Amino acid sequence: MANRKPRKGSLLTVDDVYRQPVGPAHDPKSLYALLLRFVAWRQERNWSETTLKVQTHHTYRFILWATERGLYSAADITRPILERYQRYLYQYRKTNGEPLSIRTQRTQLQPLQVWFKWLTKQNLILANPAADIELPREEKRLPKYILSIDEIEHILSLPDPHTLQGARDRALMELLWSTGIRRSEAARLDIYSIDGARKTVTIRQGKGNKDRVLPLGERALSWLQFYQQQVRPQLLVTPDLQSLFVAMDGLDGLQPNGITNAVSGYIRAAGIEKKGSCHLFRHAMATQMLENGADLRWIQAMLGHASVESTQVYTQVSIRALQAVHASTHPAEQMADEKVSDADEVGLLADLYAEADAEADTPPDSPTPT
């Protein structure tokens, strides 16, 4: 099979890598063959899909670089070779002439450290050439832009709740602001993720393959129930589709890129020329709750930032206490008299509450359903 370079602009999946062999692919000692062994080993140990995808993509890109320079086997890779690759990343310029960010450079180098460490432990190479590689130091920066409450309320007022897409998008953005979940987590929600009785949303297999249960504010829950009961059934073309948020063609669930496209459109329409979409809601939720007195550990639990040091703290967080903190510090929950911004929405939400007794961050290469 002819060697083909992956398309630019998106992460390769594991299946992509299997379909695109590099170098002497049938040689068991080749870099490509060893990558496939590593992928299979990690799959057997239930690595999260996202982590495995990132690991595979960046390791494969390194193998492409090495193959172009006549380096085909693990024995060919030495510390000077890896330092040469590190310089290549440092000197690389994107199509707009800008260099790769420090974070991007680290993201491309860290998978190599993991891979070569594994090769060494499996006795597939004698020594780890990446053992002493020093990664570029990343500056710790605060988010460049935090949406104000007024800006968020303006964005949320833009979708037309009397249209299917508008009602869906309003429910989606209310959820993002209320919970601060990631776009990938929103895309994985299904029709059973929202518990109207407990006023919670369950995130299955979030970052790091961890589940978590988060409180939902009354306002977000009302929009989600309206969407799920009144709007989603009208969108569906595939009756057995389980995804909570449905693409406008009704055939599939809304994918992460589709969520970004939907949210960023309203942000631009609001006249906010800032980079980012879903993460702007995430940063705003965390910042605003902290400013209103929420303890940092509750914010960490909401965001799912489970580091080794803080995992034990998160296990002590109860959903009832988290609900109380959320209700007392989230700005949307402090606006009892401002749940809607105009008369039409007041009437709409009045209907929602009457019916609420029923059970509740790289552009795609091709158009993404929205």
UniProtKB/TrEMBL annotation:
GO terms for biological process: cell division; chromosome segregation; DNA integration; DNA recombination. The keyword Cytoplasm applies. Residues 29-120 form the Core-binding (CB) domain. Residues 141-327 form the Tyr recombinase domain. Keywords: Cell cycle, Cell division, Chromosome partition, Cytoplasm, DNA integration, DNA recombination, DNA-binding. GO terms for cellular component: cytoplasm. It is found in: Cytoplasm. This is Site-specific recombinase XerD.
